[in-house]
Design goal:
Rossmann fold; 47% helix; 2 domains; alpha/beta; 2-dehydropantoate 2-reductase activity; 12 helices; EC 1.1.1.169; binds ketopantoate; 18% strand; 4-stranded mixed beta sheet; globular; N-(1-d-carboxylethyl)-l-norvaline Dehydrogenase, domain 2
């Protein structure tokens, strides 16, 4: 299968390495020419979850170069895995995707938070866009190296029953992912899955960034725990009013994620430390938007946005 991966951060590199090793026809689109050229000439250093390192050859091109290239159908992708972060889901990306999806490719959107699916659908009305969430752990120590730090699960599917939701391409992708050793499953309840991940990210990400702690340290202090609980309860109430139908053990699940990813720095803490734009507007901002539509208060979410912005 022809799989284009747009975004060469930790997750994009991890999927590129696994799929290329499994013999899939992969093209990786990077942000810079420098990263694409180094990947092309030196390969990708991939350290798997057992600690074994190997060099993987990954065909790569910068997204800009790809978008400006005359031969639109040079790589007629069946699937596009979109692994860029929320701030990069913008007009520049849509320009790239209009070319990339011209062959009829389906798009798998792997962003944290909410809002991106609607924007992608609006910008690419002819394309099939699927929602995805992953619990995979990966780190990118430099532009051409990736470390798989924890095995996770990729869950994907259509956002709602009434949308264009073709089973065949989804099953083909699922097969390719599993064949590459990527744990994956299809879901008909993506809205619930996305809201559940949103709830976890809305609590863990801003609070680890504000308190500058690893995920496992967050609930260890009674004051932080109290703030976590208040932010969780407000977010859960809003998301339930917005249609989330998950079980009633969400607080326990949240604590479970902190325990399972105890040694990790959240993506928001890493973004803050590196001086990058965070995804907070699409995480807590997404919850505030829903609260506004429903006429509900969202003071805790507003407070963490202000604090993260102040950082
Ligand atoms: O998704 C995450 C993130 O950091 O963005 C969690 C689940 C909090 C793991 O670090």
């Amino acid at each position: 299968m022809k799989i284009m991966i747009v975004g060469a951060g930790a997750l994009g590199l991890l999927y590129a390495a696994r799929l290329a090793e499994a013999g899939e026809d992969v093209l990786l689109l990077t942000r810079t020419d420098e990263q694409a050229q180094t990947l092309q000439s030196e390969g990708l250093l991939y350290k798997d979850v057992t600690g074994i390192e190997r060099l993987v050859k990954i065909p790569a091109q910068s997204a800009n170069r790809y978008a400006d290239c005359e031969s639109v159908h040079a790589f007629a992708a069946d699937w596009i895995l979109l692994t860029v972060k929320q701030p990069d889901v913008n007009e520049t990306l849509f320009h790239v995707l209009r070319r990339a999806a011209a062959s009829g490719a389906s798009i798998l959107a792997l962003q944290n938070g909410v809002g991106h699916l609607e924007r992608l659908r609006e910008a690419l009305p002819a394309a099939s866009v699927y929602a995805a969430i992953t619990t995979e752990g990966a780190l990118r120590p430099d532009l051409c190296a990736v470390i798989h730090t924890g095995t996770g699960l990729l869950t994907f599917g259509g956002w709602s029953e009434d949308e264009k939701n073709d089973a065949k391409p989804q099953k083909m992708l699922l097969e390719a992912l599993i064949n590459a050793g990527i744990q994956a499953k299809l879901s008909k309840e993506m809205k619930d899955q996305v809201f559940l991940k949103l709830l976890i990210n809305a609590v863990v990400n801003p609070l680890t960034a504000i308190f500058q702690v690893k995920n496992g340290e967050l609930p260890q202090d009674p004051y932080r725990l109290k703030i976590m609980r208040a932010l969780h309860d407000e977010s859960e109430t809003i998301l339930r009013a917005a249609g989330m139908a998950s079980g009633d053990d969400l607080w326990e699940r949240l604590l479970g994620v902190c325990a399972a990813t105890a040694a990790n720095e959240s993506s928001m803490l890493r973004d803050v430390r590196a001086g990058r734009v965070t995804e907070i507007d699409w995480i807590n901002g997404g919850i505030i938007q829903r609260a506004k539509r429903l006429g509900m208060p969202s003071r805790m979410n507003e407070a963490v946005i202000a604090l993260v912005e102040a950082l």
